[in-house]
Amino acid sequence: MIRSLVPTTVSRSAGAEVACSSGLRTRGSTPLRFGRADNLGAVQELASIISERHNKRKSNSMPELLKPDLYAQEGTTSAPGYPSLKGARCAHCGFVFFPRQAYGCEVCGQAGDRLHPIALSGSGTLIASAEVHMHSNGATSGRTDVKALVAPFTIGMIKLDDGPTIRTILVEVNERNLKPGHRMVSHFIEVGSGPRRVLDIRFAPAS
Ligand SMILES: [Zn+2]
Q1: Is 92:47 a contact under the CB 8 Å cutoff?
Q2: Cα dist. 9→31, 44, 174 in Å?
C-alpha cells in the first residue's frame, strides 16, 4: 500500500478558531486540495498567536542559564534543592577545583582525562564579605538582554562544602549582620531584561 501525505485543509469557523486536518490517504481515494481560508488575515493572526504562545511556553519552561559552563540547575544528593557548580576532581591526587579547566591539576600537574568533571553542591560557609559601592555597571555580562549589575551589592567568599572557595554575589543579606561562618546556599535569580528568562547564580544565607 502506497501512502501519501495529503495537504492540510484550513478553514475558519466560529470564534476565529481554525480547524486543521491532515493525515494519510491511500491511492485511489478522492484527492484533497488546499482549502482557501475565508479570511487569510484571521488565519495569519491565529498563527501568530499560536507561535507567540509556543515561544512563551518555551521561555517559561526552558530558562537560559547565563553561564552554563559554570553551573547547572540540578542539585547534588547532599544539596538537592540548590543549583550545583561545575567543578572537577583530579583522579591522581583528589584535588577538587572550580571552575573546570583543562590546563592541569594545580597540585600535581595531571591533565586530560585525569581531571574528572563533578558537580559541586551549592552550599558552603561564608569566609568574608564586602559591600560594593562603585561598580562599572553593565560590565558583568556584555549582553544587552541582561540587566546590568548596579551597585550597591554584596560580594562574598564562600568555602563550598565540596572544597573549593569561590567569590560570588550575595543576595538577601544585611551586610551589618553578615558574619563569617554563616551557612550559604545557591539560588538562581532572573537577570534577563527581555522576554526570555535568563538565570544567573547567587548565594544567600541558608534559612
Ligand atoms: Zn592532582
Answers
A1: no
A2: 12, 15, 62
Q: Using one digit for the tens of pLDDT, what is the confidence trace for 96-137?
A: 999 999 899 999 999 999 999 999 999 999 999 999 998 876
**pLDDT in the model for residue 29:** 43
Return the closest-CA partner of residue 121 out of 171, 186, 35: 186
> Distance between CA atoms of 145 and 198, rounded to whole angstroms?
9
Domain boundaries, the chain: 3-61, 64-205
Instruction: List, in sequence order, every residue forming a beta bridge with 113; answer none if it has no partner.
Output: none
Q: 80: which 3 cell numbers? A: 538537592
Query: Residue 35: what residue type?
Result: G
pLDDT band at 23 (very low <50, low <70, confident <90, very high): very low
Largest CA distance in the chain: 82
State the Cα–Cα distance between residues 157 and 148, nearest whole angstrom. Answer: 22
- Give the distance (Å) from ligand 1 centre to CA of residue 106: 7
CA of 161 to the centre of ligand 1 (A): 19
Q: Which residue has the cell 486543521?
A: 20
Distance between CA atoms of residues 124 and 69, nearest Å:
20
Please count the other Cβ atoms lying within 10 Å of the Cβ belonging to residue 30. Answer: 6
User: How far is the C-alpha of 136 from the C-alpha of 138, rounded, in Å?
Assistant: 6
pLDDT tens digits, residue range 152-184? 999 999 999 999 999 999 999 987 788 999 999
168 Cα: distance to centroid of ligand 1 (angstroms): 25
